Amino acid sequence: MKDLDNHKKIAVLIDADNAQYSKVKAILDEISAHGHIVIKRAYGDWSSDNLKNWKKSLNELAIQPVQQFAYTTGKNSTDASMIIDAMDLLYSKRFDAFALVSSDSDFTKLASRLREDEMFVFGVGERKTPISFRNSCDDFIFTENLGVDDEPTPNKETGKPKEPEPKKDINDPAELLPLLTKAWEQFQDDSGWANASAAGSFLKRSMPDFDPRSYGASKFSQLLESLKGKLDIDKKEGNQISYRVKPRKAKTKSKPQAKSQQAKAEEYA
To answer: Taking the complete model, does pTM exceed 0.90, yes or no?
Structure first.
C-alpha cells in the first residue's frame, strides 16, 4: 500500500473545451505515476453538444464535472472558473502539485503563479500548445505521446470537431546535442564522463516539454543510445549509464598539387 504522506498530493484540473476525452484515462495514468491524485475536475458547458461525448469518461474515471455556462458568445467562461478554483485549492494548502490539462495559453499566468507558491505544475496538452504555457510548467506532457489519436479536439466557436492534423514526424534526437553537450560540460567527472540521470534532469529543467517519447525512445538511456555516433556510452552495474561527447574531428586542409611542367609551359605560352 502507498504511504500517501510520502507521495505528492495532486489536483487535476481539465479544460474540457481544449482537451480530448479519449486521452483522459492515459493522462490520469501518466500523472498517477508521480503521486496521488486527490481531486479530478473537468470544466465546461456540459449543456453544449460540443461535450456530449465526455459523459462516459467522466463517469468511469470518477471525474467531477464543473458546469460553467457560456454567458457571452466568443468569451470563454470556463477558463475563469478553472483559474478561480485553482487559486482556492492553492490557498487550502492541501496539495503538492497541480496538473493543468489544456492546450490553451490562457493558463500560462496561472501556472507561473502556482510555481511562485512552490507548487509543482504539470501541464498536459497537444503539440500545438503555445511555448509560453509549456515553459511556465515544471513538466509538460504531450498528449501525442499518450495512447492513440482517435478523437479531434472540438472547435469552441463552431462546435464541430476540428479536422485532424497530420501526424508529425518524430523529432530528430540530434536536436538535443547542444543541450547534452552543455550538460556534459557541467556534470562530467574527473575522467570526463557525465551521469545520464543528472543530464536528463538538466534537460527537463531547460525544456519542460522534453520527453524521450517525442524522439522515438521509451527511455532517456535509449535516446542516448541513438546518438552513439556523437556520444560515447558507458554502462555500469546497477543500470548506471554515463556518456561523454566525442571530440570533433579536425578538418585537414588538402595541400595544393604542384603544377605539372606542361601546365606551367601553357601559362607562359
So the answer is: no
Report the distance separating Cα 240 and Cα 247, nearest Å. 23
**CB-count burial class (<10 Å; 0-12, 13-18, 19+) for 230:** middle
Q: What cell was used for 119?
A: 507548487
pLDDT digits (tens, 9 = 90+) for 108-165: 999 999 999 999 999 999 999 999 999 999 999 999 998 755 455 555 555 555 554 4
Domain chopping of the chain, boundaries: 7-145, 173-245
pLDDT band, residue 12 (cuts 50/70/90): very high
Element (H, E) at 241: strand 240-245
Cell of 129: 500548445
User: What CA–CA distance (Å, rounded) separates 245 from 229?
Assistant: 10
Domain 173-245: CATH class, spelled out? alpha beta
Cell of 265: 609551359
CATH top-level class of 7-145? alpha beta
